[in-house]
Specification:
InterPro entries: GTP-bd, P-loop_NTPase
GO molecular function: GTP binding
Organism: Alicyclobacillus mengziensis
Number of domains: 1
Distance between the termini: 8 Å
Radius of gyration: 16 Å
Shape: globular
Bound molecules: guanosine-5'-triphosphate, magnesium ion
CATH class: Alpha Beta
Protein name: 50S ribosome-binding GTPase
Pfam family, one: MMR_HSR1
CATH superfamily: P-loop containing nucleotide triphosphate hydrolases
């Protein structure tokens, strides 16, 4: 099955996006396959709302494993299938916590096996921080590296998230200016805005 990797800085909304997107596709109960950095694996069966409470939160580096949801949606007489993998937030430099360093390394190694890369950016922070200067801690050197790598693969898309918050429009416009409108989709993981466009993109690779 093809893999769609959801990647980006910590706290940008990767986990919430995965869970709400699965719900948008009609899944109510999620089978979440967890791959730990120590090589152990675990499967959790969760309702979407419970998963949101458990797996997503305001603290940075809430996610420290690869968490995959198998998306399976009817298409005529068969099913479209795709793996949606949530990852550990990436940061620049060497993180002081060894466990987070390991988790980031696991995330980076998963990049090579992904057909679709969904690079999530906090557009609200990007637009609010930079106030037109073009510099923001919401777009880090690691984002430049991800964008460079991603653009060499067919399935790369930037998700300008948190579009429901103030400042996000300016952040989205900055991203479009830099990468072109076709590469950037404005979304709200919280409210489901933009999910139709993301669905069209990922199903092309399913
Ligand atoms: N308003 C708003 N809040 C959002 C949105 N997406 C995520 N959030 C909030 O942002 C915080 C971080 O969301 P997560 O989904 O846990 O972010 P993450 O990127 O998985 O974070 P880590 O696992 O820590 O790297 C949570 O408090 C979410 O409720 C959005 O579209 N709009
Ligand atoms: Mg997370």
């Amino acid at each position: 099955m093809k893999r769609s990797l959801v990647i980006g800085n910590a706290n940008v909304g990767k986990t919430l996006f995965c869970l709400r997107f699965a719900a948008f596709l009609g899944l109510r109960q999620l089978r979440v396959f967890v791959e730990r950095t120590d090589g152990k694996t675990e499967e959790k069966l969760l309702m979407v709302d419970d998963a949101q409470e458990l797996l997503s939160g305001p603290d940075a580096h809430h996610t420290r494993d690869l968490q995959t949801i198998a998306l399976s949606v009817p298409r005529g007489k068969s099913n479209r299938q795709l793996l949606l993998t949530d990852t550990t937030g990436l940061t620049d430099g060497i993180h002081p916590d060894a466990k987070i360093r390991e988790a980031m390394a696991q995330t980076l190694s998963a990049l090579t096996s992904a057909q679709v890369i969904l690079h999530v950016v906090d557009a609200a922070r990007l637009g609010s921080d930079s106030s037109g200067s073009g510099k923001s801690s919401a777009w880090k050197p690691v984002d430049d590296q991800l964008a460079e790598y991603g653009q060499s693969c067919g399935g790369y898309l930037i998700l300008a998230n948190k579009m429901d918050l103030p400042g996000a429009k300016a952040g989205y416009q900055q991203l479009c200016k830099r990468f072109g409108k076709h590469r950037v989709v404005p979304v709200s993981a919280l409210y489901g805005g933009g999910f139709r466009e993301v669905k069209q993109h990922v199903w092309r690779f399913a």
